[in-house]
Amino acid sequence: MFKVIQNFFSNKYSDYSDEGATKTMNILHVDSSPRREASHSRKMTAELVASLKQTHSNATVTYRDLGHQPPPFVTEDWQNGVYIPEEQRTPAQVAALEYSDAAIDELLAADIVVIGAPMYNWTVSANLKAWLDQIIRINKTFLADYTGLATGKKVFVVTSRGGGGYSAGESMEHLNFQDPYLKTAFSFTGITDIEFIPVNNTAKGDEAVRESVAGARAMIHTAALSSVA
User: What are phi and psi of 218, to 5 degrees?
Assistant: First the structure.
C-alpha cells in the first residue's frame, strides 16, 4: 500500500514551477454513512484526507455528505433530458439534471476521490448508489462506445463492514458485491486506479474494532505521511 500511494503521488502530484505556480491537488471527499460520530468509515476518510493534505499543503477539498444530504433518484425528466441537446431541454429537465451536472463537475475536477462506503446487505448504500447514478452519464463521463471520460484519477474507498472475510480467497468473498460493483462503476467512467481500505468486524466487539481500525489507520497514515519524505 505504501509503494502504491508513494509512487502515485511522486509521479502525478510532484510540485512543479510554471512562472511561479505550483500544481494544486484537488480532492473530492464523499461520505455515505448515515451515522456521524459512530461511523467508522467517516473517521477513516477524514484521517485519509487529513494525511493527503499534510502531504500536499496546497490541496483543495470538495466535500459531499451523502449520508445526510442524499442525492435525488433518477427521474423521467432526468432520463429524457440526458438524451437531448441542452438547448432543447424543458425547465423540468434542466432542474432534474442540476445535481448531476454539479456532481460530475466535482468528479472531473478531482485528482483524488476519497469515498466512505459502509456495506449494506453485501453492497453499497442506496445513497451512494444514487450518487453513482448521477455521475455515470452518457456524454459526460462516458461515450456511447463506452469510452470513459474521467481518466487519470485515483480513488480510495474506505469500506466498513460488521463482519469480515470478504477479501479474495476468504470465506465471505462470494457475498462481497460492494468492491466488484464499485470497480465496475468507476471503470465505466475511465477510472481504474481504485484502492480499498477495509474496516471489518465492526459488530464483533471492541477488540475486533480496535484491531481493524488500527490496520486501516496504518494503511492510511504510514503510506500518505511517509510519502512526504
Answer: -65, -40
Output the CA angle 122-31-193, nearest 5 degrees: 75
Domains and CATH numbers, the chain: 2-13+20-68+104-226 (3.40.50.360)
Q: pLDDT tens digits for 159-206?
A: 999 899 998 899 999 999 999 999 999 999 999 999 999 998 888 888
What confidence category does residue 10 fall into, taking pLDDT thresholds of 50, 70 and 90?
very low
What's the confidence (pLDDT) of residue 210? 87
CA pair distance 12, 127, nearest whole angstrom: 31
Rounded Cα gap, residues 206 and 31, in angstroms: 23
Is pLDDT of 42 > 60? yes
In the chain, the amino acid numbered 154 is: K
Q: What is the pTM of this model?
A: 0.86
Q: How far apart are CA 4 and CA 7, in angstroms?
A: 5
Print the SS3 string covering 61-118: EEEEECCCCCCCCCCHHHHHHHCCCHHHCCHHHHHHCHHHHHHHHHHHHCCEEEEEEE
* 11 backbone φψ class: left, alpha, beta (φ>0; ψ -120 to 50): alpha
Residue 50: C-alpha distances to residues 6, 27, 60, 92, 149 (Å): 16, 11, 11, 39, 28
